[in-house]
Specification:
It is built from 18 helices and 22 strands. With 644 residues, the protein is an alpha+beta fold. Helix 5 packs across helix 7 and helix 8 crosses helix 10. The longest helix is centred in the first third of the chain and has 20 residues.
């Protein structure tokens, strides 16, 4: 019997592809199509050969004499006070014994003979005999490839180096053994660890930090030095030759990381024959990405707090190392860095140091120089603040340790003065990104209402986040994992894990393939104002376009001054038949009282559900969700926090 099913599936795929092309644009679509053709025909294999170029770029002795300015000359140049604290010792000893922290969170015991290609989350072992173009990013068998990339990123070296310095230990043999083992275990352009150029870039930057710290170590022999230098050289060529993928197909923090890597490898390894070219190219592309990706109000095109912090750390490296080497960026690049600092500081909860768990959050913290929790943004904001103002933004010594490792003592302070970011304004509007913040003593209100200038990763427009006395009492559900079950993807990427509204069980946008959403929500208006008694937000978006045309979600938030009280009115204009669901995500042990009425003043009984929360990548915990439902088009809700 002739079956229509395969043809219907093909037609559906064609329609989805057409929608993706419309959403993402012609340049993206054409590039991805050509890239896939090159990958499947083997052209990319030829462009990324597996035989490395090995030669003596410079002798170890000559390199040690080179006048190359890093954050510091070597371990012996650092002179800040040591702080041999117990938590650092415990974490370092775990790492030395093969237990590696994943995504700034849980430790996995990989052992001392880890092969660098096994996923510790599910045991899947990637083939080291396949070219990187043959390795899928995500598959049901392999699980989340980020679990393989995590150790190969070598961010764990910062804990070891801090332990080395603060406890006056010599961990150089361990560090060089790890790097050497990675090089021996990962042939050039083979296996999963060459799949992502950002991961390569981070590896090179982290190896560079270790090389300079142990510059004069007796464990850095000529053979080890040549092996590392040649690997850096060949991996830098890979980043250079694949840079268009991040610039066109990815266009986010990947592109910033990779372009900065090219600039810094060219700057810090001037003896490479490619250095002059990649330094010039990298700097130009890096500047362009900063100017493009950071909006004029300081917010960021990925609509993610964590990825914005990634950019802040990259800017910190760029600014300090450029200045130490008599380089500089355009005034606009420095301005975008300052505006980023100002924006993120406005979003930060003063008590906990945390920011809303808003947007995609994969646990990335590339350069960790402190013992504070990963969700505390203070150390990274402080390091960038110090560059601009030559003083710390915070008072706590542990927050300020990052600055010590950047060794800014010899700064020439040529940067133009900016207005201090401290204290936070009582309320702030970041219209380009679409963020509206109310800062009161002990109470923070965060509202998102914006249009997407770049692809959204989560369906979360008009999300409301509330902090009370340092605790996130109405919160974003998080990201969990990028490759997981369809049920988890729908919840964490979708509207249900955010404090906004759904129509029936529909997300605000239609889910496309992988990270892509179709029919992006679009802000119509948004205002944040003040009266004698309250702060008032009013905003509306075009939404649910895949359900019906011309649906508008309008939200009004009245925040009573100096009270933990919010009055929210949600309205769906041009609402078709169906249920309007207002969603609130809370911790299990919350002290939040929520009452609601419909357009006719009738009380709506909230439905309390068991839910999920992911505060850190790969972690999941039980949570609460309160759903208020009505067949009408308006729900009016009062949220009050009861002080314990």
């Amino acid at each position: 019997m002739w079956c229509l099913s395969p043809y219907l599936t093909m037609i559906q795929k064609i329609r989805t592809s057409a929608k993706v092309a419309v959403n993402m644009g012609l340049r993206y679509t054409a590039f991805r199509l050509l890239f896939e053709i090159k990958r499947k025909t083997g052209i990319l294999k030829k462009q990324f050969p597996i035989i490395p170029i090995n030669k003596t770029h410079i002798t170890l002795d000559d390199w040690r004499k080179e006048n190359i300015e890093f954050f510091f000359g070597s371990k012996g140049y650092l002179s800040f006070d040591r702080n041999p604290n117990l938590s650092l010792k415990e974490e370092a000893e775990k790492i030395l014994n093969g237990k590696i922290p994943f995504f700034s969170s849980v430790f996995y015991d990989l052992g001392k003979q880890y092969n660098w290609v096994t996923n510790p989350d599910n045991g899947y072992e990637y083939s080291i005999n396949k070219h990187w173009t043959e390795i899928p990013d995500y598959s049901s068998d392999s699980g989340d490839i980020k679990y393989v990339w995590e150790k190969s990123r070598f961010s764990f070296l910062y804990t070891i180096i801090r332990y080395d310095y603060n406890f006056d230990k010599d961990c150089s043999k361990f560090v060089f053994d790890e790097i050497k083992d990675w090089i021996d275990s990962n042939p050039l352009n083979m296996g999963p660890n060459y799949r992502c150029s950002q991961e390569i870039s981070l590896r090179l930057l982290n190896w560079t930090f270790a090389l300079f710290y142990y510059r004069n170590s007796s464990n850095l022999t000529e053979d080890i030095f040549n092996k590392i230098i040649n690997s850096i050289y060949n991996q830098a060529i890979h980043v250079r030759d694949n840079i268009k993928f991040s610039l066109i197909a990815v266009k986010n923090n990947h592109a910033i990381t990779e372009t900065l890597c090219l600039f810094l490898i060219g700057l810090l390894y001037p003896f490479f024959d490619i250095s002059a070219a990649i330094k010039t190219k990298g700097k130009k592309l890096f500047e362009n990405e900063i100017l493009t990706q950071i909006f004029d109000d300081g917010s960021y095109l990925q609509y993610s707090m964590n990825y914005h912090r990634v950019v802040v750390q990259l800017l910190t490296w760029a600014f300090y190392l450029a200045e130490k080497n008599n380089e500089s960026f355009s005034d606009e690049v420095y301005k975008k860095g300052y505006l980023s600092l100002k924006y993120l500081y406005s979003c930060q909860d003063k008590i906990s140091g945390e920011l809303p768990n808003y947007g995609a959050n994969d646990g990335a913290l590339f350069f960790k120089f402190n013992n504070l929790d990963y969700r505390n943004y203070s150390p990274q904001l402080n390091a960038l603040h110090y560059f601009f103002f030559n003083k710390n933004l915070y008072d706590e010594a542990e927050v300020c340790e990052d600055v010590l490792w950047y060794n800014p003592g010899s700064r020439r302070n040529k940067i133009k003065e900016y207005k201090p970011v401290k204290p936070k304004p009582l309320y702030s509007s970041f219209n380009s990104g679409g963020y509206y913040i109310i800062n009161e003593p002990g109470i923070k209100t965060f509202i998102r209402c914006g249009s997407h200038k770049f692809r959204p990763s989560q369906a979360d427009n008009l999300h409301l986040d509330i902090w009370y006395n340092g605790r996130n009492v109405l919160r974003d559900g998080g990201s969990f994992k990028y490759n997981t079950t369809e049920e988890y993807k729908k919840f964490f990427y979708g509207t249900s894990s955010h404090n906004t509204v759904m129509l029936d069980n529909y997300d605000q946008m239609l889910k496309g393939p992988r990270f892509i959403w179709l029919g992006w929500t679009e802000a119509i208006n948004a205002y944040l104002s003040e009266t004698e008694e309250a702060y008032i937000f009013e905003g509306s978006i075009k939404t649910f376009r895949h359900v019906s045309k011309n649906i508008i979600h309008s939200r009004k938030v009245i925040k009573k001054k100096e009270e933990p009280l919010w009055i929210i009115e949600d309205r769906l204009i041009n609402k078709p038949s169906g249920i309007l669901n207002q969603i609130w995500n809370l911790p299990l042990d919350n002290n939040v009282l929520i009452t609601a009425t419909d357009i006719k003043g009738r009380t709506i009984k909230p439905e309390i559900k068991n839910s999920l929360y992911s505060g850190k990548y790969g972690e999941i915990e039980e949570s609460r969700q309160i759903v208020i439902s009505s067949v009408e088009d308006i729900i009016k809700t009062e949220i009050r926090i009861i002080a314990k």
